[in-house]
Amino acid sequence: MDRFNRNSWLLLVLIFLDQIVKNLIESQKPVIEFGWLTIHQVHNTGASFGMLQGSNTVLIFVSMIVLGIIMMNVKSIKRTQELPTIILIAGIIGNLIDRVFRGFVVDFFDLGWWPAFNVADCCIVLGVAWLIIVLVVEEWKAKPVVKEKASEPRLNQKASKARRGLKKVLISGKKKAKTKS
Asked: pLDDT band at 55, cuts 50/70/90?
C-alpha cells in the first residue's frame, strides 16, 4: 500500500484538473474551434460512445464496483502497473463525481467524427491502454524460451543416416558398374 500511496498526488492532481476544467466549461459555456477540434459543453447521461443513455444510476454503481475491485486488489498491483492504475482510478473518480453531483458527465472535447469526451475519459483510456501494454509485455517476458536445438540432433542424425545410406547406394552402384565392365 505504501508504494500505491506514493503516487496519490498524481491521482489528486488529475481529479482536480478534470473537475476544474469541467467547472469552467459549465460556467463559461464556450464554443471554441481549433479546426478539427471544438471545445463546447456536452451533457452525457450515458457511457462512452453514447451507450446506456439515461443509465446514470447504473453507471454510478458500476464505477463504484470497479473502484472496489481495484482497491481490494491493491496489494497485488505490481510496480509497473501502479501509474496506469492511478490514472485509470482518477478517470473513474472524475466521472463518478459528475454522475453523483450533476446527474450527468460534462464532456467538452469534440473532434466531430468521434463522440465528445473529457479529461477523465482521457485518463480512463490512457490507463486501460497502458495497463494492457504492461500486462502483455509482462506475459511475453514470463514465457519460457523454447529451445528447438534439442530436437535438431535427432534430425541431424536421421539426415546423416540418410546421407550415408545414399553414399552406400552410390558407391555400391559404381562398384557394380566397374565389375560389369
From this structure: confident
